[in-house]
Amino acid sequence: MHSFVRVAPSAGMPDSPCNPSINSVNDLLMAKNVESLADAAEQLGPMFLRGNSLRLRTLDRNDFRALVSSPDDLLAECFFDPYAKRSDDDPWAFERSGNTARLAVSRAVENRDFCSKYPNVSSGEGRAPLIVEPLQDWVLLRNLLSVTLRVGALLREEARSSGTLLEDAGFSRVGRRTFSSKLVIDSPGYAIPVMFNPFFRPGSVTGNDLAYNADATCPLYGRIAEVRMGLFGASIGVLRGCNVIKFATGSQAEAARGPFKPRKNRPKEAKWMYLVIENREGVGQGELADVLLNALDSQLYRPHLSYSGKMMEEVSVCSYDLPTALWGLVRDHPSHYLSTCENCQRTVFSTNQGPSRRFCSDACRTTWKRRHGLLGSGTEEA
User: Which of 276, 356, 350, 354 is nearest to 26 (CA)?
Assistant: First the structure.
């Protein structure tokens, strides 16, 4: 499993709170390949600035061994986008983005050590400690924010009464667990992929399933989810404080299931970890969306109160970790509104100055025009 590596500042981590810019957050939300995800992570800085979360991610160079990144393995881990195009043949499968994604991964591996623009950590240059952040932490954080904002944008558009709010936001309807079911869940509900399934990585049954450690593989996931161990390893996680929100894998995801099928022969849904909202009471999708927002808020928003000394803000809320700072923008984004791209369906922050934003990037605008036969027609879209 791949990680981002940074050199810890020689003067120590800054004591100032996280204050990400809207542009840097949008770069994270719009990242469509490994290279753009690495650029966004580099711009935003380390995920945690203090406390035990930072300590667990900080390693001495003598305790860290960097292996050569494999473009193919890295690419396999990073078909991670819940809003990537679904396959026409299988709604649980995602279409590969072809040479564009492969070239981006090759550039990321070539230009970075573990996808990070820092001195060559594998050669032992310097003596500063290293901050090591699993790639899947950033994937999970980006996707939780992306899904939440998509739901929020639909709620703002008064789609609550449509009856298909979650499905409009990219969720798939799933049934409760049976012998032939896609996911390991106990009740019917709605699911969307949010990260690479750690059991799908290369290795043995013992190495992958029985010895799985969420705190090492994806610490952010271990922080917000209670991982429940089954007979052959972890098959499901429950969002802390909310038993109806699960992180589930495919029923044949673990190496010991299938039985012992090689990865290439396992079902496509086995490759992903899914966020699942179980609908035990048969309520509407709008009500389930409220459950999701409140449950994620309780886990991702962990602010500190601090004396600022500023008039009328003597006691203020500060964020010393990036998940809290980013979730704070989900809660309150003054002078910006949520705008969903008509081409890729990603939701980003858009300034309230000027016309409504229809596309997240020039590339999406061009793609949408080409698909609708408007490219070169002289018709301009905002």
Answer: 350
| Amino acid residing at 241 | G
Query: DSSP string spanning 216-260?
Result: HH-HHHHHHEEEEEETTEEEEEEETT-TTEEEE-BTT-STTSTTT
Domain boundaries, the chain: 158-300
Residue 87 has a CB neighbour count (10 Å cut-off) of: 13
Alpha-carbon span 154 to 191, nearest angstrom: 17
Q: What is the pLDDT of residues 341-375, one digit of tens each?
A: 888 888 999 887 766 678 888 888 898 998 888 87
Q: Which regions of the chain does DSSP assign to beta strands (E)?
A: 3-7, 58-59, 130-134, 172-174, 189-196, 225-230, 233-239, 245-248, 272-278, 304-310, 313-318, 336-340, 347-351
Q: What is the rounded distance in angstroms from the CA atom of residue 250 to the CA atom of residue 269?
A: 6
Encoded tokens for 133: 């952040």
Instruction: Give mean pLDDT, residues 80-107.
Output: 65
pTM metric for this prediction: 0.83
- Residue 172 near residue 188 (C-beta atoms within 8 A): no
- Determine which helix (DSSP H) or strand (DSSP E) holds 154, and give its type and residue range: helix 135-156
The C-alpha angle 339, 344, 348, rounded to 5 degrees, equals 30
Each residue of 32-82: pLDDT tens digit? 788 888 889 989 988 887 766 677 677 776 666 666 677 777 777 765 566
Question: What confidence score (pLDDT) does residue 63 get?
Answer: 62
CB burial of residue 18 (10 Å; 0-12, 13-18, 19+):
buried
